[in-house]
Amino acid sequence: MRRAAGSGALSLTAVLLIQLAAPAPAHADEWRDREYWLADYGITEAWKKSQGEGVKVAVIDTGIDPSHPDLAGAIAGGTDVSGAGDPSGGRGLGVNPEHGTLVATLLAGRGHAAKDSEDGEDKDEQDYKGPGNGPDGIIGVAPKAELLTVSAWIGEANPGGVPIDQQLPNAVRWAVDNGAKVINMSLGSSSTAWPESWDDAFLYAEQNDVVIVAAAGNRGVGMIQVGAPATIPGVLTVAGLDRQGKASWDSSSEGISIGVAAPAENLVGGLPEGASRYAEWSGTSAAAPLVSGVAALIRSAYPELTAAQVINRIITTAKDGGVPGRDTLYGYGIIDANAALNADVPAVAGNPLGTIEEWIRIHRRGEAPTAPAGPEPVSEALPDIPEPKVPAAAEPYTEEDPLPAVLVLGFAGLILLVGAGGSIAVLRIRRSAEASAGAVPGDLPGGEEQKLEPSRSA
């Protein structure tokens, strides 16, 4: 990861680990069948109640390709906040231009019907009765939600000249003003702190009842601990799970702000442009849109619920993982979309994950918390959520400058499968089973050793 060029602004640096194969067509028995999380995490059952109708979800990322066949009819608008992209947010930017389209298809992909090679007609469309536009390609968690694409420059120096401490708050404000009820941020930084310039934008989203979902980051790119914006109070932070439903070693990180965990390994998504339109990939970049999709399902099924109540439904219905109760690897537990949509969950008055408004009042303005006048009244509406159990962890890096040194896209790797008649070098992420066999953060395949540390300002 590149170091920040200066201490006064953030440097967006993306990490791209990719192997490309020959163009690979998608069929109902290929990419769609790889979406194990749809059935394993209650999403197909949740679809019986909601598919995200009437909900706009903003994807603040590198841009979404609206021409992807699985996103037909899904894009409801967009913008560019970098000054270097397409004004509609429809062109991938930076060193990871694919990232936004991958995220979008996992969140609200609609699939497609395969064309008959002889007459060009949709050969599957008449027989298909499932969600979305057809049985082929990627179906997202919320296949009837609408997407707002907000492209930002992530990676290297922004040729548009707009620094990230302006891009991110501008993106959040635009999303809120254009009707987003959920915002997905599959990116993260190497610091728990964030620029003061972000405060008002996140407060604006909070005051306008918007759910913000952020990726926890990945050890595989050096993000040992959760960094901003996933540390901002009120944000629903998503950790990553491996194929066996355990905390991922490479494709997740650790922190007390984690809210819930979702699949982050062996996922598939859509790629922009070209004939090769699909890839297998891993990381909390992929886990976050799965949770954003669940939030969209809830907001569609229960439009009267506040953002705080939507978040409360997700975390209180999550299945416990790791040590009993809340912890720094799984948060409140493992996402269960069916329970989040259908369980009887008491309403709450406030966000269980805190509020940026209160944080600003105490930490930016230096005001002491108001002491209660008497015993706090007992309310049945408050959830019974234990305090997190915090295991020993490495001390976070701190300097006088509170700004995050590096903001990165939250995915550890991107893989395209081997095409027929060709071969490629396939990048494999290590399974969490290696950790149980004695692996430590410095262990790498082949006996090499690499010390992973958060990037620091130059």
Reconstruct the topology from this structure.
Blueprint: E1 11-12, E2 18-19, H1 37-40, H2 43-46, E3 56-61, E4 75-80, H3 99-108, E5 110-112, E6 136-139, E7 146-151, H4 164-177, E8 182-185, E9 187-189, H5 199-207, E10 211-215, E11 236-241, E12 258-263, E13 267-270, E14 278-282, H6 284-301, H7 307-316, H8 337-342, H9 356-364, E15 406-409, E16 413-415, H10 432-436
Parallel strand pairs: 1-15, 2-16, 3-7, 3-8, 4-7, 8-10, 10-11, 11-12
Antiparallel strand pairs: 5-6, 9-15, 13-14, 14-16
Structural notes for this entry:
With 458 residues, the chain is α/β, with parallel strands linked by helices. The strands form four sheets. Strands 4-7-3-8-10-11-12 form a seven-stranded parallel sheet, with helices on both faces. The protein is globular and about 65 Å long. 55% of the residues are buried. The N terminus and C terminus are likely disordered.
